[in-house]
Amino acid sequence: NVPSDGIGGDMTFFDDFSGIAADRYIFAALAGSVFNVANLALCKGIAMLGLALAFPLCIGTAMVLGTVLSYVLKPSGNPLLLFIGVFVAFCAVCAAAVMHYFKEQQQSAAREVSLADNVSKEPLSGEGEPSSFRVAGDSGTASEPSMTRKLVVCIVGGILMSLWNPLVVLATNDPGLSPYGEFVFYSAAVTVTSLFLVPLIIAFPLEGGQGDSPGAVLSKWSSTPCVCHVYSFLGAVVWTFGTLFNAIAGNSKKLSSAESYAIGQCAGVAAIFWGIFLFAEFKGTDMKVKGLIVLVLVLYVVAIAFITMAS
């Protein structure tokens, strides 16, 4: 037996699907499909921008739009406190974008200085050019994606990410699916759409450039250390429980769906800490960038506090 509403009232798993309108199943499946596309954009954004910046940009955008849409569909709590929190979260997104701009400028300048120092120390080749210039020119390395492309991928991912929770609200609105029933169709949609999205994103990468063939991707996958696959699996398990718990909380009598969704976006704060302390993404930046990091963190914490008080 499972709780029918995330709080109490026992019913069997299959009872959850009896007497439910067909559009509730469609909304749940659409929520999973939209989330999957958005999550792929987020993963690509992280690869291009780094965890500490892509996550706040994408999730921050999703937090603002998703909370507003969820509240419109199912109003609850103090709207003033809720939307103050959403506004502060939007300020955090803007601060993260400015932080990225300065970070990229400073690290790009540092790379140019380092390259110039290395070239000046190299002996000239027979043709009078530093050998590193010839090697770089012959390698055919793809150019770095532009800053505009990086930001667009993250923001579009955030807009798409903002739609999955409103679709969940539509799937669970009375008379609708329980959080558990909704999650079955949500997860099934994620699995099925992955079979089409992954090959598509491999052939046409969001960062631009030439795509990889299925054979090359399979070769890379099989040669990847087993521990990396284990980490991927554990990440999926953590995401599964986190998403399910978020849906249960949004269907409880303590929090509305909009409030539960907004609080769940505090993952952006954790991601910034991972990027700073584990991956050293801000190494070599000046105090201006470090000050913006602190500002982004403070704004996120304040936003989450207001949203929590709104309940």
TrEMBL record:
Domain of life: Eukaryota
Residue ranges, annotated region (Disordered): 121-144
InterPro entries the record matches: Sugar_transport, Ureide_permease
Signal peptide start and end residues: none
Compartment annotation: Membrane
Keyword annotations: Membrane, Transmembrane, Transmembrane helix
GO cellular component: membrane
Coiled-coil portions: none
Name of the molecule in the record: Uncharacterized protein
UniProt organism field: Noctiluca scintillans (Sea sparkle)
